[in-house]
Amino acid sequence: MNKELKTFQEFRNEISIIELAVANGYHIVRNAGLKYPVLKNNTTGDKIIIVNAQSTSNQGYFNPRDDKDKGTLINFVHYRLGTLFPMMSGQTDAKSINAILYDYLRLPISKRNRLLEKTTSIIKHYQERKFILPGWITPLNDTSYLQSRRINDKTIFDEIFNGRIFNASVGGFCNIGFPYYDKNDHIIGCELRNTDFKKMLSGSDRSNSVWHSNLPENLESVILTESPIDALSYHQLKGKKDSMYVSFGGSVSDKQLDLLNEVFSSIKENPNFKYYSAVDNDAMGRIYTEKFGNSLHKLVVEDFPRNKDYNEEL
């Protein structure tokens, strides 16, 4: 009695895109891709980037040179029928894909194990990569850029910001560095600022992190701002005791809001706890505020500046 044919999802559960790609001439490009594995086939010149590498069943890929060439293991095979993979004569694409994946599963165990070892090595390489502040990020000493933004030393060296602002000397310029933290308060990114200069350090994971001030002993409010400069400006103008400042570094991602929910959801002992939306006084700022209200599990109070942002208020 014949076994039932596997579904495409069952193939995805059993075969990694990385595994199949390596079996067909792809290799990891170790000096490329800060977050996701990059694989290249030197024979065809094809390059793919893997997402969700650690989860075979949910793995995906995309081709940075072709917007249409993306998707799952099934799409990976489909877009390469007739080039990397053979197209079965007189068969539909679906049947050709099935035949290719069944042929792969029939490989000798020893060969499959070697391919699995390579796949595991690639995934481990990316899981172990951590963001490390370079040596030229130093404790805050030169505040000239912040002074140029009308932020005074009393604000800059307030205990609430202690250890949350650095100097970053690059190419003869002394920049300000704002470290970005994940839910465990580990630094996984850094924003550099100077006159007409703004940059996230290479390897930063901004979408999963925020810049924030120190946590007070009795937290009553969290002030949400678009940039650390705005947070410092707000504190100088109307800072409240027992507050914490959070900056998203520009656009607000859903993952950043999830981070806030996870960190602050346990604050139940203070019934007066609330968020203040101190983002820019423009259309996008109102969109962010609405997003805060829909996503954060605490009261959100609008506290827009009179001008465009709180630094302009200075």
From TrEMBL:
Pfam family example for this protein?
Answer: Toprim_2
Q: SUPFAM superfamilies from the entry?
A: DNA primase core
- CDD domains in the record, alphabetically? TOPRIM
Q: Where is the DUF3991 domain?
A: 145-205
Coiled-coil stretches noted in the UniProt entry, renumbered to this chain: none
Q: Which domain of life is it from?
A: Bacteria
Listed name of the protein: DUF3991 domain-containing protein
